[in-house]
Amino acid sequence: MDILKVEHVSKRYAGHTALDDVSFSIPQGSIYGLLGPNGAGKTTLIRIINRITAPDQGKVWLDGREIAPEDIYKIGYLPEERGLYKKMRVGEQALYFAMLKGLSRREATRRLKEWFVKFGIQGWWNKKVEELSKGMAQKVQFIVTVLHEPKLLILDEPFSGFDPINANLLKEEILQLRDKGATVIFSTHNMSSVEEICDHITLINRSKNILSGEVNDIRHRHGNNIFQVDFRGDREKLRSALEGQAMILEGSEEDTIYNSLKIHIPSNAQVREVIGFINDQVEIRSFREIIPSMNDIFIRAVAGNLADQKEQ
């Protein structure tokens, strides 16, 4: 079941098209990567989902119906530009944001105390926000984003300002929220994070959706038929024999346990034939496809070098 559906959304400003007929669906209970270079249109789309602005054309659906003003209470939004008031005390400000989301002061205080302990910032309740480090301020803003237990979380560069230990803490919390039923839209430029936690992605470039689908499917679908073969036998003999069968990209050093070659096979139909051919020449110890990273795919897609890009 899809919790959110973006349907033919377009948005234009004076002389500039921010979004051009963008459509995709987000499955309930997933972590969905919203990717794209700076200026691609991601922020505009997030603002439309949050009802901060309205589309010129198209619709956004939440839980099977067109999104309405009251649905803002079902959404938690962590913007890339942090919005804490520096002169307010941390606890006072967290309570203020929690009550804006409909929580009573008593319930908000109870939940905040639990989260502050979990994130190790309980000693900062009465400190002013301006005394916080960037990472601590980020923890506070994450807490107030998730405190009302929204069905849909929108996290824009959530790991910004965190050291590796705290980034991992936040990642674990995001995964736990997903496991408890929340759906997460995860906007980032960090492709390694996408591979670690995202189930699906949409890549927006120059205002258009150019690539959508499951992360693993996209990585396999856009492989370049590059394989690594580890073997025992005469490497130079195999190199010579592979001429005309496959392109050799690189080989292992002489002192490795097994000889190794990275090869490119022109088409899927030839893979089985080449494996058999190699097996006739040497003793194969392993043969595996090298799957491209999301970073490689991102760069190729934005450059327009990815065939058959869009998958809905």
Structural write-up:
The protein is of the alpha/beta class and 312 residues long. The chain folds into two domains: 2-220, P-loop containing nucleotide triphosphate hydrolases (Rossmann fold); 224-289, Alpha-Beta Plaits. It has helices at residues 42-49, 90-100, 105-118, 134-146, 164-179, 191-197, 215-221, 235-241, 271-281, 294-302; strands at 2-13, 16-27, 31-35, 57-62, 65-66, 75-78, 152-156, 183-187, 200-205, 208-214, 226-232, 247-251, 259-264, 283-289. The protein has a six-stranded mixed β-sheet with strand order 6-7-8-3-9-10. A four-stranded antiparallel β-sheet has the order 2-1-4-5, covered by helices on one side. The chain has a four-stranded antiparallel β-sheet with strand order 12-13-11-14, with helices on one face. Helix 2 packs parallel to helix 4. The longest helix has 16 residues, at 164-179. The radius of gyration is 24 Å and the shape is elongated. It starts with a strand and ends in a 10-residue tail after the last helix. The relative contact order is 0.14.
